[in-house]
Amino acid sequence: MTNSSSSIPLDDLVRSLVAARSNDENLPHIGLVGDTYTILLTGKDTDARFCLIDMHIPPGGGPPPHRHDFEESFIILEGEIEATFRGVKSIASAGETIHIPANAPHQFQNKSDRSARLLCICSPAGQEEFFAELGVPVATRTTAPPKLDETAQARFKAKAEALAPKYKTELLQHA
């Protein structure tokens, strides 16, 4: 049944339900900066509106300071992280959600002695493509990426700096 007076577009029958399970070995599990990111929903799944990433952050993990031209929200499922937003540090624990507006400098780190698990929503989508291009495939949601020696770290940093502009991201010295 359709309502011709509705301001809502018709149902796009080309799109379908997507069911993702974090522990599915067929999902992309990406090792990056010591963390493991499982891509649950891509821009292809959401008509580029957002992506959804399950993040496993071991003690000491988390990305370096950065900013990007898209909105980002984190729902903390397990553990806690220290979030730095525009230079101000705060703790976010399981059951809490934090939102980072587009273009704001930020970073997060797991300063605790146990792993943290976050769901990350980026809107619009695209961040999942950056992670896939920059990181390395790993076996499962909690598989640690390989440790990088000094030479590999330098190559990784150069690759990140080269790819960042393509994904509307800027790497910073301080968040």
Question: Can you give a write-up of this model?
Answer:
The chain has 175 residues and is mainly beta. 13% of the residues lie in helices and 35% in strands. The strands form three sheets. A seven-stranded antiparallel beta sheet has the order 8-5-10-3-2-1-11, with helices on one face. It is globular, with a radius of gyration of 17 Å. 29% of the residues are buried. The mean pLDDT is 94.
Short note summarizing the structure:
This protein is mainly beta.
Overall mean pLDDT stands at 94
Give the number of helices. Answer: 2
Strand order of the largest sheet: 8-5-10-3-2-1-11
What is the general shape? Answer: globular
Instruction: Work out the number of β strands.
Output: 12
How much beta, percentage-wise? 35-45%
Label the structural class.
mainly beta
Low-confidence stretches: none
List SSEs in N-to-C order.
EEEEEEEEEEHEHE
Radius of gyration, whole Å: 17 Å
Rounded to the nearest angstrom, the distance between the terminal CA atoms is 51 Å
| Main β sheet profile | 7 strands, antiparallel
Helix content: 10-25%
